[in-house]
Amino acid sequence: MYALVTFEELVGKAAGLWYRPFESWEAFLAMLAKGPSAFISLESKTGALYLVSGFITALVVYFVSRRELPEEYQGSAFSYIFPRSVYGHPSAIVDYKFVGFDLLIRFFLYVPLIVGVSHFIYVMLNRLEIDLSFSLFTNSNYYIRLAVITLIGIAVVDFCVFFSHFLLHKIPFLWPFHEVHHSAEVLTPITVHRNHPMDDMVNGLVYGVVGGFLAATYTAISGDIVSELSILGLNVFTFGYYLTVYQLRHSHIWLSFGPIMSHIFVSPAQHQIHHSIERKHWNKNYGFTFAMWDWMFGSLYVPKEREEITFGVPDVNPADFSTVPRLYFLPFAKSFRRLQAMVRARSFRFDFDEVLDPNKAPLEPVETAAGLNAASLSEMRPIRPK
């Protein structure tokens, strides 16, 4: 026998999460402080420790490869790591403004939803009262169990990141929200936070479902209770990743792992290629940590040598991404127009590699493989990686 979580329980949990910051002035200030913690906390991708270690990694890259660097990067180590053309670029300045505001509101709005979904899945599955425990696991050494769960968790969550990223690129009305991240014309470690709330919502819902399922499965197998916060905690592997090369993913600093290791792990160079406007780079390297998902699904791109990369989104008006309000609100209008085009075409099939050149496209309707005409596709651009 089992009992599902009732609607009242779900609403109560969500309301509690959103109401908590307003229970007292102290609680409100504590929630506000979580924004700046993105540059302090060890659970944050851009915690101070990781930024410092990323700087050290960049120094190592500079001294190892400085003779092979392009002429523009052959000055001092400081000018190589922090070029004014990157950190003073108008796109980077928009990043700073957007991220500064977004970090203040995210813990009031969509983080509670992510935690709530994860908790809902966890509680619902636990109430099924399925006993998956077996002696080989439950009687094994605690540290062995911990290692097994950590490895499984790493693999499952990493695939989850890959899959949600794939959806943001392939579902037409989701792309405008993810486009905000790709609209950055220069990459800095701050760019990792340049995500539209709807982008984070999609990621969070996928993570929440998978995280809740993983936690409930662990409880069923081991008999140990997993709290909702521990699902979102930082594991040792992720800590090591953040401590070494992670900060270079969103940067101008080229670091490739070579042809063999790049089939296993996603190098900073591979993620930079993901942000490239070059056609050959479109829809490549969705992975976060492991390249094997891209390898398995045919989206892996391994560079043979250093490649010159131009970042951004092709064939769009740069003014669309020039202010913080535009980054927040324009994607809703673009997404609605795409959804309308899908409904009019009665088709969910789109081939975003078939790009219409707005300077050459004829005015009369032109049928595409998706069954849409040129006017319907006027707002649609190639789905581009994160």
Explained architecture:
This protein has helices spanning 7-19, 25-33, 48-65, 77-81, 84-87, 90-105, 110-126, 135-138, 142-170, 175-182, 197-222, 228-231, 236-243, 258-261, 268-274, 292-297, 324-345. Helix 1 runs antiparallel to helix 7 and helix 10 (175-182) packs antiparallel against helix 17 (324-345). With 386 residues, it is an all-alpha fold.
Seen as an oligomer or otherwise, the chain set is single chain
**Strand fraction band?**
under 5%
The helicity comes to: 40-55%
Low-confidence stretches: 130-136, 226-233, 350-386
Number of H- or I-type helical stretches: 17
Structural class: mainly alpha
> What pattern of helices and strands is seen along the backbone?
HHHHHHHHHHHHHHHHH
Morphology: globular
Q: What is the number of beta strands?
A: 0
Mean pLDDT metric: 77
Through-space gap between termini: 44 Å
CA radius of gyration is 22 Å
Largest sheet: none
